[in-house]
Amino acid sequence: MNLRDLLFNKYLHPGKSKEKFSRYLPPNPVIIEAGAHIGSDTIEMSKKWPQGIIHAFEPIPEIYDKLVNNTRKYKNIVTYPMALSNQTGNGEIFVSSGKSDGSSSLLTPKEHIDEHPDVKFKKKIQIKTTTLDRWADENNINTIDFAWLDMQGNELAALKSGENILRTVKAIYTEVFHKELYSGAPLYQEVRSWLESRGFHVVREEMDWAS
User: Fold this and answer.
1) Closest alpha carbon to 34 in 99, 85, 76
2) pTM for this model (two decimals)
């Protein structure tokens, strides 16, 4: 099996066990996590692959502070107060509140408002953004083994910004929508088709939510 040819699709709520990824990755993987939130999955991956390194991105300042605090004792976690995107510089993000503070997105909320009325988007803030290839170049990252993406509809844009480094990726675990929860968010088939055109294929799907 060509280890590059892997695509994991995550539908809003990921399975918490990372055991299924081990056979596809080296014992010391380089991992990027976009949408790290307060670090729950970050810490789990840190423990699962203590010889690896996790590069965790979280753009919301108050949540980023919690991420830093929660992961401070883990030496193999590096945090970044920014979002991966299709451009480098600044962006405007819709900040979620109410039942979920983990639904913030660079894209305008659309069907999410009706599907999850207990999640509010009352403010927008300016954040720093970078592309995957630009980040890799600036940090002398030559290889990424595993990409864990939870970006509320902006996953494909981020992947497209990393055509060079994407050639080294062995596995991707990403959120994909069946409904346009955020304006312009690509749906499942578009994301799948683009990744398949880059040599990936689906090996597992988790559809805990209809959207």
Assistant:
1) 85
2) 0.90
